[in-house]
Amino acid sequence: MKYLTQLTVSALFMATSLSIVAVSNSAIAEELTSLSAKTGFIQVPSLISTDTSDRDPNTRNATYSFQISVPKEAGASLQKVTIAQKDPIEPINFASDRTTAYIQEPSGDRTTLETTTAIDPNTRDVSVIFTSPVAAGKTVIVGLRPVSNPSLEGEYVFGVTTFNNSQESQGQLIGYGRLGIYNTFFYGALAPTF
Questions:
Q1: pLDDT at 85 over 60
Q2: Considering only 33-37, 125-129, 134-138, 180-184, which range has the smallest mean pLDDT?
């Protein structure tokens, strides 16, 4: 009888545990469905890297590159990217007619993409719209050209938000890119040589 009671208690505990797991999985599935409905992505793109071709203050030839991966399981194409400077040390103005974008293939080949760039006059947020949406499973690199690098040295942070090709979807913030603007001659001269 003692063993039967232990077996019954164990079976009851196991059934309760399975019920909790089922409810948890259901809640996770519901949250993913809700996120998918809002953003249009089943799996959202990710910000892989952020870089600049020139870190010196006040230079005019820099390109700020944002590498974004659209996962194979995204469930939608990438139509638009919005890049917004966060808590700027100094606001940066971008040239809307000098934006570049291309698909980076695993082989190293690049396919240029046609884009339209819109800059919000109040917030200075830059929206890059792809003429042909970026398909799931691809990596895209967006290049923004500042009118000039800021004159103040420091770390500049940009929030990157992606939108799919559905008109009704909301954007999804996928990360923050950080660019260091420093006088490379000054810092290079003081760098240890050991």
A1: yes
A2: 33-37
Helix, strand, coil percent values for the chain (each to nearest 5): 25, 40, 40
In Å, what is the CA distance from 29 to each residue of 23, 24, 75, 150, 172? 10, 9, 15, 45, 18
- Read off the tokens for 143: 């290049």
138 exposure class (CB count in 10 Å sphere: 0-12, 13-18, 19+): buried
The DSSP bridge pattern shows strands 64-69 and 154-164 to be: unpaired
Between 88 and 113, residue with greater pLDDT: 113
Are 139 and 111 in contact by the 8 Å Cβ rule? The answer is no
pLDDT at 23 over 50: no
Q: Looking at this protein, which amino acid is placed at residue 48?
A: I
Look at the pTM and tell me if it is higher than 0.85: no
Residue with tokens 């164990």: 10
Tell me the helices (H) and strands (E) count for the chain, helix number first. Answer: 2, 10
Domain layout of the chain by residue ranges: 1-39, 43-188
Joined tokens for residue 167: 């008109």
Residue among 44, 35, 48 at smallest CA distance from 75:
44
The answer on pLDDT for 169 being more than 80 is: no
Under CATH, which number does the domain 43-188 receive?
Answer: 2.60.40.740
